[in-house]
Design brief:
Length: about 270
Amino acid sequence: MTLNANILTPAAGSEALLSIGQKMKFRISTIYSMVIFICSLSAQASSTANTQAFPVWQQQISVAVDEFMSSWSTQAKINDYTEIEYEIGSLDPRLNLPPCQQTPTVESNREARAGKLTVKVSCDTGKPWGLYVPLTIKRMHPIVFIDNTLPRMSAISESDLVMKKANIDELGYGYFTSIEDATGMIARRTLNAGEPLIPNQVEPPKLVNKGDSVLIEASSASISVKMPGLAMADGRKGQQIPVKNTQSQRLIRAKVVASGLVKVPL
């Protein structure tokens, strides 16, 4: 009875509850600290395991290839706007090579084809070894894309085009690197928005029609002569067409350079 009375006394009950609360708080705090400590150890162990997941010789190959690609990229770039991305292919998991005493050497006697390049990685120190490593390469470069869908035979204007980066090694049929070069071209087929502009999809505009009067310009480094002529065929910019000199009546071949203007070397 005395025990029960003491427990139910407000002052004694408050102290008892406070004591219990303090113990619970201490225990919770301790458990929380232990959880953090265990998580920290787990993260450290995971980090160490990830580092140790790759053997030293594989890490050395990665460093060597990176140095090689840094030099290779300088030659493979079209200009400073080209970005080179690469990925090392999977290596034979059965290999167990000894670490190299210095950074392995990397060489390749071939050019990259369709984004693929194989390099030879060699270690010439300690216990020598060598193996061929496949690389997947992307050359990302700004090229001309169609911004507005255009029907066949449309004249392409600057507003129809936009520059975007693309992997040029996937564009086996060529591409344009300048909107200026593509402006004024004629679509040979329907051009869909969002697609890269391919050279064989377009043709230069017709600048001369058969039967047109044209100006023939014969020039050299020091002299230029102009004479009237008659186009004997249709002609687009850069094309060679037959032209009759209306003064001499001679038939010559001349290059179309502008509307109504053809040129021949003197």
